[in-house]
Protein backbone atom coordinates (compact mmCIF):
# COMPACT_ATOMS: atom_id res chain seq x y z
CA UNK A 1 0.00 0.00 0.00
CA UNK A 2 2.21 2.81 -1.30
CA UNK A 3 -0.15 5.70 -1.83
CA UNK A 4 0.55 8.11 1.04
CA UNK A 5 3.24 10.77 1.04
CA UNK A 6 2.46 12.76 4.18
CA UNK A 7 0.82 11.13 7.21
CA UNK A 8 -0.38 12.89 10.35
CA UNK A 9 -0.84 10.95 13.58
CA UNK A 10 -2.76 12.57 16.41
CA UNK A 11 -1.22 11.47 19.69
CA UNK A 12 -3.26 13.30 22.29
CA UNK A 13 -2.62 12.87 25.97
CA UNK A 14 -4.21 9.66 27.22
CA UNK A 15 -4.19 7.93 23.81
CA UNK A 16 -2.43 4.58 23.61
CA UNK A 17 0.37 3.67 21.21
CA UNK A 18 -1.91 1.99 18.65
CA UNK A 19 -2.10 4.96 16.29
CA UNK A 20 1.60 5.83 16.59
CA UNK A 21 2.86 2.33 15.89
CA UNK A 22 0.61 1.90 12.86
CA UNK A 23 1.46 5.38 11.57
CA UNK A 24 5.18 4.61 11.79
CA UNK A 25 4.64 1.30 10.00
CA UNK A 26 2.68 2.99 7.20
CA UNK A 27 5.28 5.74 6.89
CA UNK A 28 7.99 3.11 6.46
CA UNK A 29 5.96 1.12 3.92
CA UNK A 30 5.02 4.22 1.91
CA UNK A 31 8.29 6.09 2.29
CA UNK A 32 6.15 8.88 3.70
CA UNK A 33 6.88 11.81 5.98
CA UNK A 34 5.21 11.53 9.37
CA UNK A 35 3.89 14.33 11.57
CA UNK A 36 3.01 13.38 15.14
CA UNK A 37 0.73 16.00 16.64
CA UNK A 38 -0.80 16.90 19.97
CA UNK A 39 -3.23 19.73 20.68
CA UNK A 40 -3.72 21.44 24.01
CA UNK A 41 -6.57 23.65 25.11
CA UNK A 42 -5.72 27.35 25.48
CA UNK A 43 -4.97 28.43 29.03
CA UNK A 44 -7.89 30.58 30.26
CA UNK A 45 -6.86 34.20 30.65
CA UNK A 46 -8.32 34.17 34.14
CA UNK A 47 -5.58 31.77 35.21
CA UNK A 48 -2.99 34.44 34.51
CA UNK A 49 -4.75 36.78 36.90
CA UNK A 50 -4.00 34.44 39.80
CA UNK A 51 -0.45 35.69 39.74
CA UNK A 52 0.63 38.77 37.85
CA UNK A 53 4.16 37.40 37.88
CA UNK A 54 3.16 34.49 35.62
CA UNK A 55 0.87 35.59 32.75
CA UNK A 56 -1.30 33.05 30.96
CA UNK A 57 0.88 33.26 27.82
CA UNK A 58 3.88 32.07 29.82
CA UNK A 59 1.83 29.23 31.28
CA UNK A 60 0.71 28.31 27.76
CA UNK A 61 4.32 28.16 26.58
CA UNK A 62 5.29 25.97 29.52
CA UNK A 63 2.47 23.53 28.78
CA UNK A 64 3.45 23.42 25.10
CA UNK A 65 7.08 22.69 25.95
CA UNK A 66 6.01 19.98 28.38
CA UNK A 67 3.84 18.30 25.71
CA UNK A 68 6.65 18.59 23.18
CA UNK A 69 8.98 16.77 25.56
CA UNK A 70 6.37 14.09 26.18
CA UNK A 71 5.97 13.56 22.43
CA UNK A 72 9.74 13.37 22.07
CA UNK A 73 9.92 10.74 24.80
CA UNK A 74 7.10 8.71 23.23
CA UNK A 75 8.78 8.76 19.83
CA UNK A 76 12.27 7.90 21.10
CA UNK A 77 11.74 4.17 20.49
CA UNK A 78 11.24 4.89 16.78
CA UNK A 79 14.45 6.91 16.43
CA UNK A 80 16.19 4.19 14.41
CA UNK A 81 13.40 3.76 11.83
CA UNK A 82 14.74 6.43 9.45
CA UNK A 83 11.24 7.90 9.13
CA UNK A 84 11.13 11.60 8.27
CA UNK A 85 9.52 12.78 11.51
CA UNK A 86 8.10 16.10 12.70
CA UNK A 87 6.62 16.71 16.15
CA UNK A 88 3.97 19.42 16.49
CA UNK A 89 2.08 20.77 19.50
CA UNK A 90 -0.71 23.24 18.73
CA UNK A 91 -3.15 25.13 20.89
CA UNK A 92 -6.89 25.19 20.27
CA UNK A 93 -9.67 22.79 19.33
CA UNK A 94 -8.10 19.41 18.41
CA UNK A 95 -10.15 18.67 15.29
CA UNK A 96 -9.83 22.22 13.97
CA UNK A 97 -6.06 22.34 14.50
CA UNK A 98 -5.58 18.91 12.93
CA UNK A 99 -7.55 19.93 9.85
CA UNK A 100 -5.67 23.22 9.55
CA UNK A 101 -2.43 21.25 9.59
CA UNK A 102 -3.81 18.85 6.97
CA UNK A 103 -4.66 21.75 4.67
CA UNK A 104 -1.43 23.69 5.25
CA UNK A 105 0.90 20.70 4.82
CA UNK A 106 -1.09 18.79 2.17
CA UNK A 107 -1.46 15.77 4.48
CA UNK A 108 -3.04 12.78 2.73
CA UNK A 109 -3.87 10.56 5.73
CA UNK A 110 -4.81 11.26 9.36
CA UNK A 111 -4.50 8.46 11.93
CA UNK A 112 -5.77 8.59 15.48
CA UNK A 113 -7.02 6.27 18.17
CA UNK A 114 -10.80 6.28 18.52
CA UNK A 115 -11.87 8.49 21.39
CA UNK A 116 -15.34 7.35 22.37
CA UNK A 117 -17.00 6.02 25.48
CA UNK A 118 -15.95 2.47 26.36
CA UNK A 119 -18.85 1.99 28.82
CA UNK A 120 -21.33 2.06 25.94
CA UNK A 121 -19.16 0.31 23.41
CA UNK A 122 -19.05 3.41 21.22
CA UNK A 123 -15.66 4.35 19.86
CA UNK A 124 -16.12 7.69 18.20
CA UNK A 125 -16.37 10.82 20.31
CA UNK A 126 -16.44 14.49 19.40
CA UNK A 127 -12.96 14.80 17.89
CA UNK A 128 -13.45 11.73 15.69
CA UNK A 129 -16.86 12.88 14.49
CA UNK A 130 -15.56 16.34 13.65
CA UNK A 131 -12.73 14.82 11.62
CA UNK A 132 -15.16 12.53 9.80
CA UNK A 133 -17.30 15.50 8.87
CA UNK A 134 -14.68 18.09 8.01
CA UNK A 135 -11.25 16.58 7.30
CA UNK A 136 -10.54 16.65 3.54
CA UNK A 137 -8.17 13.66 3.52
CA UNK A 138 -8.84 10.05 4.60
CA UNK A 139 -9.21 9.59 8.36
CA UNK A 140 -8.20 6.29 9.96
CA UNK A 141 -9.74 5.79 13.41
CA UNK A 142 -8.20 2.83 15.20
CA UNK A 143 -9.91 0.83 17.87
CA UNK A 144 -7.80 1.16 21.05
CA UNK A 145 -5.35 -1.63 21.82
CA UNK A 146 -5.40 -3.07 18.32
CA UNK A 147 -2.38 -5.33 18.01
CA UNK A 148 -1.17 -7.19 14.98
CA UNK A 149 -2.75 -7.25 11.52
CA UNK A 150 -6.43 -7.08 10.63
CA UNK A 151 -8.15 -10.35 9.70
CA UNK A 152 -11.41 -9.06 8.17
CA UNK A 153 -11.65 -5.82 6.17
CA UNK A 154 -15.08 -4.56 5.07
CA UNK A 155 -15.45 -2.03 2.23
CA UNK A 156 -18.88 -0.35 2.03
CA UNK A 157 -19.73 1.17 -1.35
CA UNK A 158 -22.80 2.69 -3.00
CA UNK A 159 -23.48 1.02 -6.34
CA UNK A 160 -26.88 2.67 -6.64
CA UNK A 161 -25.53 5.89 -8.12
CA UNK A 162 -24.89 7.38 -11.54
CA UNK A 163 -22.93 10.28 -10.04
CA UNK A 164 -19.37 10.15 -11.42
CA UNK A 165 -17.96 11.68 -8.23
CA UNK A 166 -19.40 8.89 -6.11
CA UNK A 167 -18.50 6.24 -8.64
CA UNK A 168 -14.91 7.42 -8.30
CA UNK A 169 -15.31 7.33 -4.53
CA UNK A 170 -16.45 3.69 -4.80
CA UNK A 171 -13.28 2.86 -6.72
CA UNK A 172 -11.08 4.71 -4.23
CA UNK A 173 -12.71 2.85 -1.33
CA UNK A 174 -12.22 -0.49 -3.04
CA UNK A 175 -8.61 0.23 -4.04
CA UNK A 176 -7.65 1.33 -0.55
CA UNK A 177 -9.45 -1.53 1.18
CA UNK A 178 -7.90 -4.03 -1.24
CA UNK A 179 -4.39 -2.70 -0.61
CA UNK A 180 -4.88 -2.86 3.16
CA UNK A 181 -6.23 -6.40 3.00
CA UNK A 182 -3.30 -7.46 0.81
CA UNK A 183 -0.80 -5.88 3.19
CA UNK A 184 -2.44 -7.47 6.24
CA UNK A 185 -3.12 -10.82 4.50
CA UNK A 186 -6.79 -10.30 5.41
CA UNK A 187 -10.08 -11.32 3.88
CA UNK A 188 -11.74 -8.45 2.01
CA UNK A 189 -15.52 -8.17 2.13
CA UNK A 190 -17.36 -5.82 -0.21
CA UNK A 191 -20.85 -4.75 0.89
CA UNK A 192 -23.34 -2.72 -1.09
CA UNK A 193 -27.01 -2.19 -0.33
CA UNK A 194 -29.64 -1.39 -2.91
CA UNK A 195 -33.36 -0.76 -3.09
CA UNK A 196 -36.11 0.83 -5.12
CA UNK A 197 -36.78 4.39 -4.05
CA UNK A 198 -40.26 4.85 -2.54
CA UNK A 199 -41.09 1.19 -3.16
CA UNK A 200 -44.01 0.90 -0.74
CA UNK A 201 -45.87 4.05 -1.92
CA UNK A 202 -45.26 2.95 -5.52
CA UNK A 203 -46.81 -0.44 -4.82
CA UNK A 204 -49.98 1.21 -3.54
CA UNK A 205 -50.18 3.44 -6.59
CA UNK A 206 -48.86 1.23 -9.41
CA UNK A 207 -49.50 -2.33 -8.20
CA UNK A 208 -47.19 -5.21 -7.33
CA UNK A 209 -46.60 -6.47 -10.87
CA UNK A 210 -45.32 -3.16 -12.16
CA UNK A 211 -43.18 -2.49 -9.09
CA UNK A 212 -41.74 -6.00 -9.14
CA UNK A 213 -40.57 -5.35 -12.70
CA UNK A 214 -39.00 -2.08 -11.53
CA UNK A 215 -37.29 -3.91 -8.68
CA UNK A 216 -35.89 -6.46 -11.13
CA UNK A 217 -34.60 -3.68 -13.38
CA UNK A 218 -33.00 -1.94 -10.39
CA UNK A 219 -31.28 -5.14 -9.26
CA UNK A 220 -29.95 -5.76 -12.77
CA UNK A 221 -28.60 -2.21 -12.87
CA UNK A 222 -26.82 -2.61 -9.53
CA UNK A 223 -25.35 -5.99 -10.50
CA UNK A 224 -24.04 -4.48 -13.74
CA UNK A 225 -22.45 -1.67 -11.75
CA UNK A 226 -20.82 -4.30 -9.53
CA UNK A 227 -19.47 -6.17 -12.57
CA UNK A 228 -18.12 -2.93 -14.00
CA UNK A 229 -16.36 -2.14 -10.72
CA UNK A 230 -14.99 -5.58 -9.97
CA UNK A 231 -12.45 -5.83 -12.75
CA UNK A 232 -8.96 -7.27 -12.39
CA UNK A 233 -7.24 -7.66 -10.01
CA UNK A 234 -10.25 -7.82 -7.71
CA UNK A 235 -12.48 -10.13 -9.74
CA UNK A 236 -10.02 -13.04 -9.63
CA UNK A 237 -8.96 -12.65 -6.01
CA UNK A 238 -10.26 -15.47 -3.80
CA UNK A 239 -9.90 -13.26 -0.73
CA UNK A 240 -12.68 -10.92 -1.95
CA UNK A 241 -16.21 -11.73 -0.79
CA UNK A 242 -19.23 -9.80 -2.09
CA UNK A 243 -22.32 -9.00 0.00
CA UNK A 244 -24.91 -7.45 -2.30
CA UNK A 245 -28.02 -6.96 -0.20
CA UNK A 246 -31.42 -5.31 -0.47
CA UNK A 247 -32.63 -3.30 2.50
CA UNK A 248 -31.72 -0.41 4.77
CA UNK A 249 -28.04 0.50 4.16
CA UNK A 250 -27.09 1.22 7.77
CA UNK A 251 -28.78 -1.91 9.12
CA UNK A 252 -27.31 -4.19 6.46
CA UNK A 253 -23.77 -2.81 6.74
CA UNK A 254 -23.83 -3.15 10.54
CA UNK A 255 -25.19 -6.70 10.22
CA UNK A 256 -22.47 -7.73 7.77
CA UNK A 257 -19.80 -6.12 9.96
CA UNK A 258 -21.07 -8.13 12.94
CA UNK A 259 -21.43 -11.32 10.91
CA UNK A 260 -17.84 -11.31 9.62
CA UNK A 261 -16.45 -9.80 12.84
CA UNK A 262 -14.90 -6.95 10.89
CA UNK A 263 -11.68 -5.45 12.22
CA UNK A 264 -11.85 -2.47 9.87
CA UNK A 265 -14.55 -0.84 7.78
CA UNK A 266 -13.61 1.40 4.85
CA UNK A 267 -16.34 3.73 3.62
CA UNK A 268 -17.25 7.21 2.43
CA UNK A 269 -18.71 9.69 4.88
CA UNK A 270 -20.34 12.42 2.79
CA UNK A 271 -23.88 12.15 1.47
CA UNK A 272 -24.80 12.71 -2.18
CA UNK A 273 -27.12 15.62 -1.44
CA UNK A 274 -27.04 18.50 0.99
CA UNK A 275 -24.45 21.21 1.52
CA UNK A 276 -21.05 19.81 0.45
CA UNK A 277 -18.61 19.72 3.31
CA UNK A 278 -21.15 20.33 6.04
CA UNK A 279 -23.24 17.18 6.28
CA UNK A 280 -22.14 13.67 7.04
CA UNK A 281 -24.11 11.02 5.15
CA UNK A 282 -27.11 9.56 6.95
CA UNK A 283 -25.86 6.01 6.44
CA UNK A 284 -22.39 6.82 7.73
CA UNK A 285 -23.76 8.71 10.73
CA UNK A 286 -26.03 5.78 11.69
CA UNK A 287 -23.21 3.26 11.35
CA UNK A 288 -20.72 5.35 13.30
CA UNK A 289 -23.08 5.56 16.27
CA UNK A 290 -22.84 1.80 16.87
CA UNK A 291 -19.56 0.79 15.25
CA UNK A 292 -17.15 -1.14 17.47
CA UNK A 293 -14.32 -1.75 14.99
CA UNK A 294 -11.71 0.51 13.41
CA UNK A 295 -12.81 2.78 10.58
CA UNK A 296 -11.14 4.36 7.56
CA UNK A 297 -13.25 7.16 6.10
CA UNK A 298 -12.82 8.75 2.67
CA UNK A 299 -14.24 11.90 1.10
CA UNK A 300 -15.21 12.39 -2.55
CA UNK A 301 -12.69 14.05 -4.85
CA UNK A 302 -13.08 17.81 -4.69
CA UNK A 303 -14.40 17.88 -1.13
CA UNK A 304 -13.73 21.23 0.53
CA UNK A 305 -13.50 21.32 4.30
CA UNK A 306 -15.68 23.96 6.01
CA UNK A 307 -12.51 25.08 7.79
CA UNK A 308 -10.81 25.73 4.46
CA UNK A 309 -13.90 27.51 3.14
CA UNK A 310 -14.06 29.68 6.26
CA UNK A 311 -10.37 30.49 5.96
CA UNK A 312 -10.78 31.65 2.37
CA UNK A 313 -13.74 33.83 3.30
CA UNK A 314 -11.77 35.47 6.12
CA UNK A 315 -8.86 36.10 3.76
CA UNK A 316 -10.96 37.97 1.22
Automatic annotation (TrEMBL):
Main localization, broad class = cytoplasm
> According to its UniProt record, where is this protein located?
Cytoplasm
What is one GO cellular-component annotation here? Answer: cytoplasm
What CDD domains does this protein map onto? USP-like
Q: What InterPro entries does this protein's entry cite?
A: UspA
Where do the TM regions start and end? none
Key word Ribosomal protein present in the record?
no
Keyword set for this entry?
Cytoplasm
Q: Where is the UspA domain?
A: 4-143, 171-298
Top-rank lineage group of the source organism: Bacteria
State the Pfam families in the record. Answer: Usp
Q: What does this protein do?
A: Required for resistance to DNA-damaging agents.
Query: PANTHER family per the record?
Result: UNIVERSAL STRESS PROTEIN E
Protein's name in the database: Universal stress protein E
Record organism: Novipirellula galeiformis
Taxonomic classification, please?
Bacteria, Pseudomonadati, Planctomycetota, Planctomycetia, Pirellulales
Amino acid sequence: MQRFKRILCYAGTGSDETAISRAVGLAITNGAALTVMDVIKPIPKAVGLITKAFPSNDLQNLVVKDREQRLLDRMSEYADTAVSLELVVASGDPATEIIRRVIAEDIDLVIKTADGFSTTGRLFGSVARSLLRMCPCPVWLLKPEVHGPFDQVLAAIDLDTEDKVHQNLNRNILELAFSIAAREDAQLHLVSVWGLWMEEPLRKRMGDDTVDRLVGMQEAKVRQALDDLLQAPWAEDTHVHVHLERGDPAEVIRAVADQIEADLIVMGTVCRTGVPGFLIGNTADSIISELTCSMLALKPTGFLSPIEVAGKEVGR
